[in-house]
Amino acid sequence: MSYHSLLQKQIAQFLSAAEESNPAIVKLLTAINNSYSSFERDRKITEHAFDVSEQEYQRATKDLQEQNNIRKQSISKLKEAIRALDPSAPQQFAEDNDDLIDIISFLEKQILKTKQLEQDLINAKEVAEKAALAKSEFLSVMSHEIRTPLNAIIGTIMLLQYQDLAPDQRELLNVMEISSENLLSLINDVLDFSKLEEGKIIFAERNINVLHFLKNIKMANQVKAEEKRNRIKITYDDDIPEFLVCDDVRLGQILNKLSSTDKCNF
Question: How far apart are CA 141 and CA 22, in angstroms?
Fold first, then answer.
């Protein structure tokens, strides 16, 4: 009979051939051999289980390390993204702090600040809209109040033109008429708030005598210039056509603005 290698060595060492063939001894040896075989089988199973457990442990450890590295990289990128949103804002978490709870808490505070800023902007927008509406209503009311006396002045100037006036008086009257009409046009543009808001002011195209127009501008500002001891002089290039198509009101506004300075030369 074939026994376990360890049992075979012990039999050879302690039993003779006659003893080994004894039925009682054979039965005992068979039982011992079965125990050896069971032990050997259990040892192999245990070793195999240990090897499998060790491999699983190593694999789990590697996975945890990879997950931890991914987590650290994610936190680092999240911090970079936060700093990129507002580099000047003070960061409320440590550079070496990898606790997501602190970062999430910081983001929650930033979200609350953003919501508050959004509400402030909404409130400011409502205030601005109310102010714009109030200004529009004010201009609407003032429109009639300002135009009424100015229309009366223009009407009076037109009536005076039918009177028997001296040439210099008629020329001054023409200057007053041009200035008053320019003022009325300017007031119309200023009071028409919707046009200014939408950029819909349209430039007129009228044919004007340039030299005559400049003389009217000069006469309209002559008194103010003399008060400041200034002199308005017109320098006219012969290459300029006698008549030009332009918006005489806007051109008059520009020239009147220039003539109000201390030094002016037309």
Answer: 136
